[in-house]
């Protein structure tokens, strides 16, 4: 399991001061919750990056021709994976991507198992749905369905991911992410991932609700470069995390607990 870069939140204990500063108990609680969020979104990022291994369908191109070329390209860029095209019916083809038992390292993530990507339609409208429930990311089973629709009035991307929080016994998560649009950023298949959406973290103390807003990841990084995550905890507190870039892989996160004074902490993404 990769390092939990959010451990830098321990510095909150020494950087927070003043009459309206969070207490040490609130600091420790915030640190634990942020670590669970980071570990969960790490798997969501893995699901989206798996989707990005295949190029987005080129509108107007015959479906089978596109898939044959896409599979050739995938095999050349991810040599340790095998991909085959299977006809399912007159309007649907599937690409089956299989990783070796030892796994494949892609963008700092290790993929094992197999994924089934179904492409339905083509030329004027394409719907792609990928079932990743036979895969694992960094040894963690990936209970995920991802996909997109394109060639209509808009391109949509979704990732519905759930499972156990990596390294956190008795904690589970469910995140239903959608793409946030930003000029200059590709939807998938580039060097960045941008997503929004709701989620839940469930543990012995109850269920926390999460709302992600324009959370921007650069591939290979564990933490987001920018964006916000709002946690509404089971015991009635609000924890707001605002990520901001500083230099290269160094960033900072501004943590606000309820109406207390915010605390800014440096992090390594």
From TrEMBL:
<keyword id="KW-0732">Signal</keyword>
<feature type="signal peptide">
    <location>
        <begin position="1"/>
        <end position="21"/>
    </location>
</feature>
<protein>
    <recommendedName>
        <fullName>Lipoprotein</fullName>
    </recommendedName>
</protein>
């Amino acid at each position: 399991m990769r390092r939990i870069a959010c451990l830098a939140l321990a510095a909150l204990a020494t950087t927070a001061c003043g009459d309206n500063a969070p207490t040490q108990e609130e600091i420790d609680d915030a640190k634990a919750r942020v670590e669970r969020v980071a570990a969960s979104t790490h798997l969501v990022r893995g699901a989206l990056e798996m989707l990005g291994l295949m190029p987005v369908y080129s509108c107007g191109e015959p479906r089978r021709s596109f898939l044959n070329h896409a599979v050739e390209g995938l095999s050349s860029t991810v040599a340790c994976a095998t991909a085959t095209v299977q006809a399912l019916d007159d309007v649907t083809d599937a690409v089956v991507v299989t990783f070796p038992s030892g796994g494949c390292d892609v963008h700092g993530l290790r993929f094992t198992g197999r994924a089934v990507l179904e492409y339905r339609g083509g030329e004027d409208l394409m719907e792609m749905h990928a079932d990743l429930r036979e895969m694992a990311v960094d040894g963690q089973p990936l209970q995920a369905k991802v996909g997109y629709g394109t060639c209509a009035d808009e391109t949509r991307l979704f990732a519905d991911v759930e499972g156990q929080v990596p390294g956190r016994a008795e904690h589970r998560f469910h995140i239903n992410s959608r793409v946030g649009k930003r000029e200059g950023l590709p939807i998938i298949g580039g060097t960045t991932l941008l997503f929004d959406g709701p989620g839940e973290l469930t543990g012995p103390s109850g269920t926390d609700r999460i709302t992600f807003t324009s959370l921007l990841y650069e591939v290979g990084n564990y933490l987001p470069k920018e964006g916000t995550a709002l946690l509404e905890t089971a015991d009635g507190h609000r924890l707001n995390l605002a990520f901001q870039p500083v230099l290269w892989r160094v960033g900072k996160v501004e943590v606000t607990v309820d109406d207390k004074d915010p605390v800014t902490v440096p992090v390594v993404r």
